[in-house]
Each structure stands twice: as C-alpha cells, then as structure tokens.
Amino acid sequence: MKARLLPAAWAGLLALAAACPAHAATYRVDDTGTFVSQPVTPMRWRQLAPGRSGDHMMEGRVSAALRLNLSAWVGRPARIYLSLAPTDGDQLVATWRTQGRLLPGTVRGGGRTLVFEGVVRESFLQESIVLDLMADGRKVERAQSLQFFFEIEVSS
Q: What pLDDT does 155 receive?
C-alpha cells in the first residue's frame, strides 16, 4: 500500500513544483522614450459644488505615448507592471485604457498592476494610453507629481 502512495505523492509534488514559477527577478524598464502629453494635469471637481453629502472627488486626464525598451528580455517570458509612485495619503487612483498592446487597469499611489504577461517579442514596446486620475478633494492639499514607471519580472 505504501508503494502505491509514494509514486502518487511524488507525482503531486512534481506537478506542484512545475506550477510554481521559478524565482523571478524584477527590473525597472527604460522608458526614456515615453512622452506625456502635458507636464501639468489640472484636476477638476467632478461635481460643481461639492457639499456635505455630495461628491468630493476630483478628476483629471493625461495621455502618454509609451516607448518601453525591452531589448534585454527579447525571447523571454515576462510580466510587466505599471507602478505609481506613492502620493500624499495614497489617495490618488489612476485608471487607464490602451490601444491593445497592454492590458487596461487601475492602480493606487504606491501600488502596481499587471499590464503584460507573455513572451517579449520586440526590443521596443510602443503604446498609447490615457490615464484617468481621481482623488478625494478633501485630502488634496497641494499639487503633486504624477510619477508612473514600469517594472518587468523575468524568470531567472
């Protein structure tokens, strides 16, 4: 009876090991070719006169032409994440849509979200995205810098 359980147990462990990804290394992606449409993005109240029970959200929009240098990872399976640097109180939320080369998504200040998973096929990934920004106007005390960047995870 033990002889029958051992091969089954080994098969289960091997299947589990195959399902777990190998150790992944994370690198910041060179995006020096990226162009943001406007250096200052005005935020506007979503509702003209926010009140006690009203909507206190502010919103803005910025477009970006991305150019990500992926030449070091061509031919390798990878995951690419859009990261948003922390903002005061982490109240900023960015939601974006793309032309289809990257996944659409949402991220909070200080977080990151998957935008690509697969084999890197080209040295440069070019994409246009539109970022919709939202923040609670009661928590916005001053202008803040919108800093987003990309990270890539590749199996070692």
A: 81
